[in-house]
Amino acid sequence: MHSVKKGNQWHFGMKCHTGVDAGSGFVHTVEATAANVHDVTAAARLLREDDKAVYGDSAYLGIEKREEIKSNPQLSAIEYRINRRPGRFPRVSDNAIDWERHIENRKSAVRCKVEQLALKAKQIFDDSAQRYGAEKIRTVLAANGIRIGKRRIAVIMQEIGLHSVRVDAKKLHKRKQQLKKENLLKREFSANYPNQV
């Protein structure tokens, strides 16, 4: 773990880099690094040999110029569709259609389709004190206007590592812990004098 400054605020901890299949929405690769490691340095380890196109935000700009990508012929053949930084767009007149922003918006739509869903599922899971399973998370998402299947949520929960804990299971575990008292006497009850063990 490491600390890093982003803007005027210091952050301490780790980053989780994920490689997600755009078609199915399944996470195929996860890598954890220290907070001070830049996203583009871990990007090559998130790619698969069968990838045809890669979507990423502006933190991954210049990935195709890195040595680990150039040296591998399969990774260099991939089409990298990386979002540009917002400040790099040219100004357009009031009546013109801003095609460049529209193209960047479409790139972001593909990229964040899975990220937003996993984030919302994790928030609902944490708000329920880690009790909700896939069905209850699906119900809460449906109440918020997001229609998704129970199995897809179950797969996302499994990929993130979320496992619900039943309330009665917590009680049972606590009861077992209370029964496991420390045996100070070692089951030897013979005493030579009164009030001695």
How would you describe this protein?
It is built from seven helices and five strands. With 197 residues, the chain is an alpha+beta fold. It is elongated. The two termini are 50 Å apart. The model has no long low-confidence stretch (mean pLDDT 79). It has helices spanning 39-43, 67-70, 73-76, 99-127, 134-143, 150-160, 167-179; strands at 2-6, 9-20, 27-34, 53-56, 79-82. A three-stranded antiparallel beta sheet has the order 1-2-3. Strands 4-5 form a two-stranded parallel ribbon. Helix 4 crosses helix 5.
Notable features of this structure?
197 residues; alpha+beta; two-stranded parallel ribbon; 5 strands
Query: Given the structure, what is the number of helices?
Result: 7
How many strand units? 5
Strand order of the largest sheet: 1-2-3
Overall mean pLDDT: 79
Helical residue percent?
25-40%
Distance between the termini: 50 Å
Overall spatial form: elongated
- SS content category: alpha+beta
Which runs of at least 5 residues are low in confidence (pLDDT < 50)? none
Order of helices and strands: EEEHEHHEHHHH
**Rg measurement, Å:** 26 Å
For the sheet with most strands, the description reads:
3 strands, antiparallel
Strand content: 15-25%
Question: What are the SSEs and their pairings?
Answer:
Blueprint (H helix, E strand, L loop, with lengths): L1 E5 L2 E12 L6 E8 L4 H5 L9 E4 L10 H4 L2 H4 L2 E4 L16 H29 L6 H10 L6 H11 L6 H13 L18
Parallel strand pairs: 4-5
Antiparallel strand pairs: 1-2, 2-3
Helix pairs in contact: 4-5, 5-6
What's this model, at a glance?
By secondary structure, this protein is α+β, with helices and mostly antiparallel strands. Helix content is 39%, strand content 17%. The longest helix has 29 residues, at 99-127.
